């Protein structure tokens, strides 16, 4: 009986919610030391120019090899990192690590190296030291500012008087470019586009993914995507579709004039050696020989 009562009480909790709470705790307890222990690593996902199929960019996506929980994706810990402030050292580490990697690709492959795109947390964009941090990272890694794009979200800039705007303008003056990530999901006032020196809009994967949700109107979904592409072009911006999972979607996006695409159809986020292999493979001369940096996949 007691057992049954216990079990009955247990069902008051959603077991999934509970599991999440536990791992959130595990995550927040270990995170402060995880950076020093070298438990984070970065995968890179190809961004493809739809007009010619070339991999012109890669997005750095952070992961955490947690000793008990296995490899965690950013959805599991970036939120906690933002709440606790750990996003600052973590974000700095990602920038440093990714710029170092991108500079290595430039050294090995010259102008065929992909441009690097790094996600910037809201807190990072609001931090007074941001511009100096990025200046320093570019200097120490030797990466040209034109090879770096920062992805911000619609919630990063809240108004024309926003302090973050100054920093973002300074970065663009340095030659770094800006993209708006998850564009169209933020319920935001689009007027921010007049104040923000962005050059690319990334259409959230949820728009493209929803095109295959049988419960949703596919025709309308495509018209929204097509409208976002037009909006970007009207503003003189390039546009990237995220979450492209099929050849048919890629073709349709290409036909509507979408400039870039990212998604499983073109490649999942992978270890840097795999990116190097793809760059080398795209070049007929180098593909015959051995490409630098394209060794077997290792741990980091
Ligand atoms: P995001 O910047 O919008 O990145 C795209 C996410 O979509 C990635 O998830 C990627 O793995 C996933 N994705 C790519 N192609 C497909 C596809 O075809 N289908 C589906 N279903 N998903 C696809 P991931 O790696 O889990 O990252 C989630 C989010 O975490 C990112 O969304 C970004 O907002 C954040 N994030 C990742 N790395 C960092 C970082 O270094 N700093 C900060 N602040 N945030 C990061
Ligand atoms: Mg992103
Ligand atoms: Mg996105
Ligand atoms: Mg996202």
TrEMBL record:
Please state every residue range assigned to the domain named EAL: 24-283
| Domain of life assignment | Bacteria
- List where the protein spans the membrane: none
Name this polypeptide is given: Diguanylate cyclase
Q: Which organism is it from?
A: Kitasatospora cheerisanensis KCTC 2395
The major lineage groups are:
Bacteria, Bacillati, Actinomycetota, Actinomycetes, Kitasatosporales
- Show which stretch of the intact protein is covered: 413 to 712 of 748
């Amino acid at each position: 009986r007691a057992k049954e009562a216990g079990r009955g009480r247990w069902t008051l909790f959603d077991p999934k919610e509970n599991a999440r709470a536990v791992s959130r705790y595990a995550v927040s307890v270990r995170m402060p030391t995880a950076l020093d222990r070298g438990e984070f690593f970065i995968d890179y996902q190809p961004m493809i120019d739809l007009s010619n199929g070339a991999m012109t960019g890669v997005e750095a996506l952070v992961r955490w090899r947690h000793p008990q929980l296995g490899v965690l994706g950013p959805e599991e810990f970036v939120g906690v990192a933002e709440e606790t402030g750990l996003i600052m050292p973590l974000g700095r580490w990602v920038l440093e690590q990714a710029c170092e990697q991108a500079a290595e690709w430039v050294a090995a492959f010259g102008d065929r190296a992909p441009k690097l795109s790094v996600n910037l947390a809201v807190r990072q964009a609001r931090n007074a030291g941001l511009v100096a941090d990025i200046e320093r990272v570019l200097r120490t890694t030797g990466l040209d500012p034109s090879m770096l794009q920062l992805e911000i979200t619609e919630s990063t800039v809240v108004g024309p008087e926003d302090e973050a705007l100054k920093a973002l303008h300074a970065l663009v003056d340095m030659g770094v470019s800006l993209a708006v990530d998850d564009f169209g999901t933020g319920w935001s006032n689009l007027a921010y586009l007049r104040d923000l020196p962005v050059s690319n809009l990334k259409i959230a994967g949820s728009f493209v993914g929803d095109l295959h949700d049988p419960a949703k109107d596919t025709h309308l979904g495509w018209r929204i995507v097509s409208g976002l592409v037009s909006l970007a072009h009207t503003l003189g911006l390039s546009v990237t579709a995220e979450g492209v999972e099929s050849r048919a979607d890629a073709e349709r996006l290409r036909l509507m004039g979408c400039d870039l695409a990212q998604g499983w159809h073109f490649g999942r986020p992978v270890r840097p050696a795999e990116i190097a292999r793809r760059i080398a493979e795209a070049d007929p001369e180098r593909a015959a020989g051995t490409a630098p940096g394209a060794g077997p996949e290792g741990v980091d």
